[in-house]
């Protein structure tokens, strides 16, 4: 059988063998009847042989059945027995190129048949031609059936390796080409699962094998591969993993404080750098294809004309859109690419607080700030969670939080992430990110004239670190998501595999992938702070509203009120809670029934009417509360 | 962070005067556009951990609630005081000096890289030079496209420069922008 598999690959070549061997096959014609009987016996075939035979049989007009006969393994053994005396040397060649001989044998039969026809009478010819037509038709049907079966059997040919085979593989060093082939086969099977699957193998088995193979071939640990397999369909997963293997193009950002993109591009082109504008969404970005001089060591770089920065790092600052004369806080600023971009957008007006927790990274931050000519920055070295205490709550206009993360989106830059990240790592960074985001929200002034925005971004593709963090913030503080202004990303997940259901506004967040946008994996979300009080939002649209609002006091009291807040804050909160409670009750009463109504019949007018009624009651409640608050204050 | 005292202020201003001459008043009195207030304040000098910063007043006000240990940088760093108490200008004030420099030197493209590696300016690399430079004056070094590259002390006066052989040193470089790559840690 091994010889046969070789034969498959050389099947085509076998057809071109010299015709000299034809003569030796003359002994075969007598076998035709026997072989006809064997036509229907398609079981236990070597699929590759069959495939070769079938493809060639479809070409031949006459005597196709004989060819198919010769497909039979029995036929092959017969041949071998007969050929024995004729050509011992041909035995091996027969074993190597069984197809060649069968084809040639078939052509011999053709010649013989044509001789017969010419000898017999006309009526005989007619009969014979009818018979031949019938046989041809039957043969075509059989050929079709065989083709179908062949395809299935070829897939069958790809079986999932048994446990013994796996053990054997585990003992030897990994065989990369065969792994790659197996990965490709599994992807093919999974993409057309119904028709290509093997009996007795579930989808899960294929996916398990794929995970193992991907992990071995590309060097990922189990956890990461599991997460990626869950997040992406198989074909996209392959694209993503391939994209992670290659580096993204080098980008640089023009420092608009010192020069313009056009001028800089001219200067660099003169130095021998091959570059292009980055994309239409950026006016300051340039992408470098190749360069004769080291791009990070030109006099222009040292004079601060540009900054080497990945394209994805432009996005959070573009989403933040800082205006002149604003107070901006960058909570995790090192090495300073985003901070300098913010300063350039603000034209060195206003004030930027650049904070960085890790001391070794402070040097590069200050060096970059000085190099790029940023004069409105104050650099401090705090843990981001302490910043609201230091800089003051409700004082900043905008805050950028480029949170420390697991780095699963920048695997192309740092391969160690493939093996070093675990569920505990993700959970830890997720907790840290949640705390940092709450601190960021606390720093922003909701009543700021021009701002009140927080931008949260990570270079990770994990849901734990992205959507889950934003959802947590939406529940804990009075913020809402607004569009980022970046149209070309993918919207964030609102629900995921039945495990997570997030607030529907999470589709305003943006995800970026290397295989889609040709930049590092990234996540950006823009929040607007609605009020300076620490209460959780009251009117939410998830189905969890009912549970949430029924206990606003409990959750708010536990989580949100830090001990050291002054009396005013507690008064404000109580007031807002009072505001919330009557509203919520009405919401509670309305929401479930409203939903049922909507499902039964979607009547626009009714919906609008009920909304108007709701607004009226809310207004009345608010007025009542205003009066009530004055009484409340006098009481306290 | 504290303001400079008398002695320190004189030291700083002396060093700056070498480079800027009478333009020093530009540095001290120019209105600043930093800070979120609409009225432009002034710039002032502050000292933190032996480093002198040139920073707008509005920034100073808002940096007072950051502890001394945690405050790393304000505005622009212009120089450091050594352990013995002398003041040296650092490369980060190059932009400030270049805007107000009295004596300038332009380099030929061929010797740009040499200066960026930390070497001194030789006569053969000189493109242009301003008149009336005396020995010991502060000089700012530019490339031919007016990109400031370094600053230093003139070794010869302009007249002497003309007579020198091509390998003689014209400007002794004190700080150059190549330091951002070569000595990032020491900045």
UniProtKB/TrEMBL annotation, chain A:
<feature type="compositionally biased region" description="Basic and acidic residues">
    <location>
        <begin position="151"/>
        <end position="162"/>
    </location>
</feature>
<keyword id="KW-0694">RNA-binding</keyword>
<feature type="compositionally biased region" description="Basic and acidic residues">
    <location>
        <begin position="125"/>
        <end position="139"/>
    </location>
</feature>
<feature type="compositionally biased region" description="Low complexity">
    <location>
        <begin position="537"/>
        <end position="553"/>
    </location>
</feature>
<keyword id="KW-0949">S-adenosyl-L-methionine</keyword>
<dbReference type="InterPro" id="IPR029063">
    <property type="entry name" value="SAM-dependent_MTases_sf"/>
</dbReference>
<feature type="compositionally biased region" description="Basic and acidic residues">
    <location>
        <begin position="581"/>
        <end position="590"/>
    </location>
</feature>
<feature type="domain" description="SAM-dependent MTase RsmB/NOP-type">
    <location>
        <begin position="240"/>
        <end position="530"/>
    </location>
</feature>
<keyword id="KW-0690">Ribosome biogenesis</keyword>
<feature type="region of interest" description="Disordered">
    <location>
        <begin position="535"/>
        <end position="636"/>
    </location>
</feature>
<feature type="compositionally biased region" description="Basic residues">
    <location>
        <begin position="591"/>
        <end position="602"/>
    </location>
</feature>
<keyword id="KW-0808">Transferase</keyword>
<dbReference type="GO" id="GO:0000470">
    <property type="term" value="P:maturation of LSU-rRNA"/>
</dbReference>
<dbReference type="Pfam" id="PF01189">
    <property type="entry name" value="Methyltr_RsmB-F"/>
</dbReference>
<feature type="compositionally biased region" description="Basic and acidic residues">
    <location>
        <begin position="603"/>
        <end position="623"/>
    </location>
</feature>
<comment type="similarity">
    <text>Belongs to the class I-like SAM-binding methyltransferase superfamily. RsmB/NOP family.</text>
</comment>
<dbReference type="GO" id="GO:0070475">
    <property type="term" value="P:rRNA base methylation"/>
</dbReference>
<feature type="active site" description="Nucleophile">
    <location>
        <position position="459"/>
    </location>
</feature>
<feature type="binding site">
    <location>
        <position position="383"/>
    </location>
    <ligand>
        <name>S-adenosyl-L-methionine</name>
    </ligand>
</feature>
<feature type="compositionally biased region" description="Acidic residues">
    <location>
        <begin position="67"/>
        <end position="84"/>
    </location>
</feature>
<feature type="compositionally biased region" description="Acidic residues">
    <location>
        <begin position="107"/>
        <end position="124"/>
    </location>
</feature>
<feature type="binding site">
    <location>
        <begin position="332"/>
        <end position="338"/>
    </location>
    <ligand>
        <name>S-adenosyl-L-methionine</name>
    </ligand>
</feature>
TrEMBL record, chain B:
<keyword id="KW-0539">Nucleus</keyword>
<comment type="function">
    <text>Required for proper 27S pre-rRNA processing and 60S ribosome subunit assembly.</text>
</comment>
<dbReference type="GO" id="GO:0003723">
    <property type="term" value="F:RNA binding"/>
</dbReference>
<dbReference type="InterPro" id="IPR036974">
    <property type="entry name" value="PUA_sf"/>
</dbReference>
<keyword id="KW-0690">Ribosome biogenesis</keyword>
<feature type="domain" description="PUA">
    <location>
        <begin position="103"/>
        <end position="178"/>
    </location>
</feature>
<dbReference type="InterPro" id="IPR005155">
    <property type="entry name" value="UPF0113_PUA"/>
</dbReference>
<dbReference type="GO" id="GO:0005730">
    <property type="term" value="C:nucleolus"/>
</dbReference>
<keyword id="KW-0694">RNA-binding</keyword>
<comment type="similarity">
    <text>Belongs to the NIP7 family.</text>
</comment>
<dbReference type="InterPro" id="IPR055359">
    <property type="entry name" value="Nip7_N_euk"/>
</dbReference>
<dbReference type="InterPro" id="IPR040598">
    <property type="entry name" value="NIP7_N"/>
</dbReference>
<protein>
    <recommendedName>
        <fullName>60S ribosome subunit biogenesis protein NIP7 homolog</fullName>
    </recommendedName>
</protein>
<dbReference type="GO" id="GO:0042255">
    <property type="term" value="P:ribosome assembly"/>
</dbReference>
<dbReference type="InterPro" id="IPR016686">
    <property type="entry name" value="Ribosomal_synth_fac_NIP7"/>
</dbReference>
<dbReference type="Pfam" id="PF03657">
    <property type="entry name" value="UPF0113"/>
</dbReference>
<dbReference type="InterPro" id="IPR015947">
    <property type="entry name" value="PUA-like_sf"/>
</dbReference>
<dbReference type="Pfam" id="PF17833">
    <property type="entry name" value="pre-PUA_NIP7"/>
</dbReference>
<comment type="subunit">
    <text>Interacts with pre-ribosome complex.</text>
</comment>
<dbReference type="InterPro" id="IPR002478">
    <property type="entry name" value="PUA"/>
</dbReference>
